[in-house]
Every structure is written in C-alpha cells, then in structure tokens.
Amino acid sequence: MQRNVVILDIDYVTYEEKPVIRLFSKDGDKNVVLLDDTFEPYLYVMSDDLDACIEEIQDNLDVVRIEKVMKKDFQIENEFLKVTFKHPQEIAKNRDALRDLESVIQIREFDIPFYRRYLMDRDVIPMTEVVATGEKLDSFLNLDSSKQDIEIIKLTEDLARLEEYPRDFRILSFDLEVRNPHGMPNSEEDEIIMIGVASNFGINQVISTKTNSDDRDDFVFQVSSEKEMIEEFIKIIKENNVDIIVGYNSDNFDFPYLKDRAKLFGIDLDIGMDESDIKFIRRGYANAASFKGLIHVDLYLVMRRYMTLERYTLERVYYELFGEEKIDVPGDRIWEFWDNEGEELDNLFDYSLDDVVSTLRIAEQTLPLNLELTRIIGQPLFDVSRMATGQQAEWFLVKQAYFDEEVVPNKQGSNFADRASAEDNEGGYVREPEKGLHENLVQFDFRSLYPSIIISKNISPDVLVVGDIENEDEYNISPEHDLKFKKNPQGFIPSVIDKILQERFRIKREMKASDDETEKKALDVQQQAIKRLANTMYGIYGFPRFRWYSFECAKAITSWGREYIKSSIKKAEDFGFYAIYADTDGFYAKYVKEKK
C-alpha cells in the first residue's frame, strides 16, 4: 500500500535484538507510524594496516561486518574501515575497546545518534511530505492500529520525497495558572486554577473550576475539579489531533508541574500519538518535555536565539515583536486575584487567555523560520528548536559532509587553553559613535561580509598550511597573522557556504520576480533561514567544541574583516564622507566636503 504522509517525529525501538526506526507521520487527520528495520548503525575506523585491523576487530569484538571504503578526510581521499554493529547500543558499549586496539589510529562518527544518522543517510527530512510504500500491520510492540486509531506501515521501499510540502500545521498553545500564596509554586501543595489554550483551528478558552462574570465574553469553560480540568486539556489535544503544542518556559515549568499534578490524581498525560506519556529528555543543560508524534516547542528557548533582549519575559518579547502591551498580572498576586473573585477574577481570566493568545501569535511569527531550518538542517523540529545556532550550523555541515563523502571530524574538546585562545581573537572592527545629533547620514554595509570572506579567501582547516611556502601566489595570506590558505582546491566549509549563499540569492531573485504575496512570504522565510545559517558559520570556527574548530580560521576571518572595513572607511573619506560610527560589517558616515 501507499500513503502520502508528513513526517513529524522519529525514534527507534528494539525488536528481536534489532533497531527499528519509527517515523511518526500524518496523512491529513490520520495518524500513521512508519517502521523501517533495514537500517544498521556504523562508525569509521582509521588504520595504517587495514587488513591487520580487520583481523584484530574480528578477534576482539562482535560486529555485523567490516568493509573497506574510500572517503574524504579534510578533502584528501583515504581508505577507511566501515564497521557495522547490530544495535546502536553496541557502538557505545564497544567504542573504547575499539579505540584501544593496537592497529586502530582513530574512530570517527561514533557519536552521531542513530535516529539522526538515519535521517541523513536516507535523506529523510522532517516536516516534509513523502510517499511511503509498505505492508500494513495491525500491531507492532506497543502500537495497536484499532486501539490507538493509527495506521502502521512497515516500509518495503525507500521513502520518496515530494517537491511541495504543506505549510499549515495544527498548533495549540497552552499555559498554567497556579494558586501560589507562598511564593514559588509547589506542585505537591499548590493547585492549578486555570489552563489556558489557544489554537489556529478555532479553540480559544480558559479551563477552570470557577467562571467569569455573566456580562463578559464567554471564553471560560467551567469544570468541577482540578482533575477534570487536566482531563479536559488532554481531551482537547486528542480530539483535535494537534501537530505542534507550544508553551512559554513550558520545558521548565508548565509540563513538569502538570505532570506532577496529574500524577496526584492518577491521570496519565497519554497524549503521544501512540498514547504514551510525557518523557523528559536531556537537551543541553535542561530537560525537554517530549511526546511521541506530538511536537512540543518551548518558545522561551526559541526567542533567546531569535532576538537580543535584556529580559525574555513573555510580555517583553510580545512587545518587541508586535509593539503592543499584553495584559499583565503580577505573579505574586495571582492567588489574591483568584481568592478575591469579582473584577479581579475577571482580570485573571483575561490575563490567562491573553497569555496563550500572545504565545500563539509569537509561534505563528517564529515557527515558519524554525520549520524552514528544520527542513534545511534535516533534523527534527523538537531538536532544532532547542539547538543553539552553532549546533544548527554544525548539524547542517554534518549532513553536507555525508553527501560530499567526507568523514566528519571528532569533537576536539574544550580545555582551558582552547577557551583562552578563542577569547583572544580580536573580533570585528568597531569605531565608537561620535556624540551629538548628526544629519544627512549614509550607510555603508557589506553584504554577507564574513561568509563572503570565507568563500573568497577559501578559509577552511583542510586548506590551512602551517610553515613555509614556496609560491605565495597559490595562497591567500591573511593580514596581521600571515595565515596561509590554499586557493585550490576549495575547502569543505567554503564550498558548503558558497552553495547555500547561491541558493539564497536564487530565492531572493525568485521572490523579487513573484507577484504572489503568499509565495513571496514563504520565499522570504527560506532566505532568512539560509542567511542565519551562513552568518553563524564564521563564529563557530572559534568555538572549541565545534567539529571543524580552528582558531587560526577564526583569526583570519576577522583580520580580513577589519582590513576591509578600514579600507572602505578610508576610501569613503577620499570622496568626502566622514565615518562617525563603525561596527564589524558596516559604518555610518556624513558628507563633509566635496572630493578634491
């Protein structure tokens, strides 16, 4: 059978000691889980004596197979051993033993999670539509097609990606209000008094055990108990088959609190596509609330990367985006508004609804960019929305390395010497602004300055040459530090940035030629996503945990940047323009005299 589905989420389970990929997908309102048991985990091994290494691995480790493969290592073709294991856990269990073998120089790509490896190798892109061909199953492990109203398909062919993808997903925002007379809410004692929900499919309400005044808008859905309130919230998610649920600081507060209160009442938060409960997964320094097939996005984390503010409260972010004040109630007075009832209770209901409506508006403003980044990077939206910009760029490069037959470098670690060196980089040129009121200013701005420098000067660790050289004409030599980069061949990272910048310029031309406002908006989101990735890549050269870390590359980029901005300021002065302020990739100047 065949199904056209949109892939939302991915994980893997173990069946008969083998890993089975599960792709949680949707065909319209129909939930579909695709199963693939054909993908195997692997890593690469470097050795001076491949035959001896094969024999040593076979004598010491239990592996499925070992193959000699030609790959590129920093642009240089080299023969590696591709070692395939039966299960992803076997890689983690055996990597130290493998690394310690006498014939092994290095192991590579051992730390790429299995589900991410699958997405890259099979070129499966989340949040896009694919044609799935396979055998229909009634059940598989904890999946039951009739009980959970899902369709289960075991894939018999590779997924075929369609050119067009849907841009509309069913989004629900939510927020809890808690009676907290003692300050910070305690989930063992302090009850949830309101759950606000807002959606892009028509539901906008506050669920509560109290109701508002009769003469006000009827948006409050009254229930008899906190237990019933939580159950009604779960019912809304299930009955409306939500694709994406969004909150604001929901990883740290709303979902952990809701889980604790639900547990007190014996309620399962079984809102996953397979009716599984909430699971907290470590992401960075925090735990992320996760559901199978229901994508949870915490907008607080997104906004900390989306804009630079002194505070990231919902009120502050909403005002920055829309120029409007949202309703606010001091957190330490919520319990008083609840207890006092009357007008203050009405205000609290308005505040609760305004919270979720504001969160939904922020989601509708920012999710298109995150969806586009998800498609470009090729990793799940759940993960991408929690990645720092440097991580997003790195996973994009890891994916491109696979298609370029390039073996990904290992992370180099982040010792104190690395961090100290990174902090020593001088950075971009800055001229402090001249005080006073200035008129008739002109702005000079470089287009994609640092990405352009990386491409034009071929700045990449695989073409960096240390030591003396014979023919300077064959190298780009940086100012100040005399760092040398071969002009040919094109380095791996410059080649990737070159491709994506060309794609961005193509999209901008297409956007300019289009008369369709909807199409122009979609294209604009695409080019913004590409711009963010390209602009991030120069900065992460100097981050010690970056796989392609190179302090020399970071220094070279900024030294050329300083040279270009200073020479541009000098050139402008020759034509009578005086710079009053400069920062990294542009400057403001005023006309002071005619050119002599």
When the domains are counted, the total is 3
CATH topology of the largest domain: Nucleotidyltransferase, domain 5
Strand content: 15-25%
The chain-level structural class is: alpha+beta
Low-confidence stretches: 414-420
Mind sketching the topology for me?
Layout lengths: L1 E14 L2 E10 L2 E7 L5 E5 L3 H11 L4 E9 L2 E9 L3 H12 L6 E3 L5 H8 L7 E9 L1 E2 L2 E2 L5 E6 L4 E2 L9 E8 L13 E8 L4 E5 L11 E3 L3 H14 L4 E4 L2 H15 L14 E5 L2 E5 L4 E4 H8 L7 H9 L11 H7 L1 H36 L3 H4 L4 H15 L12 H9 L5 E2 L9 E5 L3 H8 L7 E2 L9 E3 L6 E3 L5 H22 L3 H24 L10 H24 L2 E7 L2 E6 L5
Parallel strand pairs: 3-11, 13-17, 15-16, 17-20
Antiparallel strand pairs: 1-2, 1-8, 2-3, 4-6, 4-7, 5-6, 8-11, 8-12, 9-10, 13-14, 14-15, 18-19, 21-26, 22-27, 23-25, 24-25, 26-27
Helix pairs in contact: 6-9, 7-9, 8-9, 9-15, 11-15, 13-14, 13-16, 14-15
